Amino acid sequence: MASTAGYIVSTSCKHIIDDQHWLSSAYTQFAVPYFIYDIYAMFLCHWHKHQVKGHGGDDGGPRAPGSMWAVARGYLHKEFLMVLHHAVMVLVCFPLSVVWRQGKGDFFLGCMLMAEVSTPFVCLGKILIQYKQQHTLLHKVNGALMLLSFLCCRVLLFPYLYWAYGRHAGLPLLAVPLAIPAHVNLGAALLLAPQLYWFFLICRGACRLFRPRSPPPSPCQAQD
C-alpha cells in the first residue's frame, strides 16, 4: 500500500517542488497509527516468545509481575533500532511532513514511500526461516530479490533524490549537498544510516545463504 501510494504521488508530480497530491498527506496520517501498533505488536511477539521458551517461574507458572519490565528491557535491547525508527517516524517525520513542508515536495515524499517495496521480501524471509525453509529455492530467490530491492529502494534512493533535485535546479549531483540547507543533509544522513546497517546485515546473510556448503567427510576421513 505504501509503495503504491508512493508511486502514484511521485509519478503525478511533474514539478518536484510545487506539485501536490492528496495521497501524500492522507497516507502519512494513515501510516502513523500503523507505526504505533507495530511497536506494540513486536512487543507482544517478544513477550510470547519469552513465555514459550520456558522462561516462566521456577514452578512452571507465570513469572512475577515485575518480570514484565525485564521483558520490556530485553525487547528494547533486541529491537532498539526498529523501535527508534518507528518513534522517529511518528514523532519527527510525521510533523515535518504535515507541518514543516507546507505542501511542498510531495514528489520526494512519494519516493520515500516507495522504499517499502523491499518490505514484503524481508517479511517473507523471516517467515521462511521460522518454517525451517532456509534450504529451499524459494528462500534463495526471495533473498536475492530482498537484496536487490533493498539496495535500489532504500540505499540508492537517497542519491537518486539528490540527483532529481540537481536536475531540477540545474546542478551536478556532487554540488547538491552544498546547495541545500544543512539540516536537510543531516536528516537524509540520519535516515540513510539505519538503511546502510540493515543492508550490511542482509549482505552478510546473503553470503551465508549462497556460500557453497563443504561436502561431508568420506568414511575414511571420518575414521581418521
UniProtKB/TrEMBL annotation:
The entry's keywords: Membrane, Transmembrane, Transmembrane helix
Any one annotated GO CC term: membrane
Membrane topology recorded in Swiss-Prot or TrEMBL: Multi-pass membrane protein
Residues of the TLC domain: 1-211
Annotated compartments: Membrane
Ranges annotated as spanning the membrane: 80-101, 107-129, 141-162, 182-203
Keyword Metal-binding set for record: no
Name this polypeptide is given: Ceramide synthase isoform 2
Organism encoding this protein: Daubentonia madagascariensis (Aye-aye)
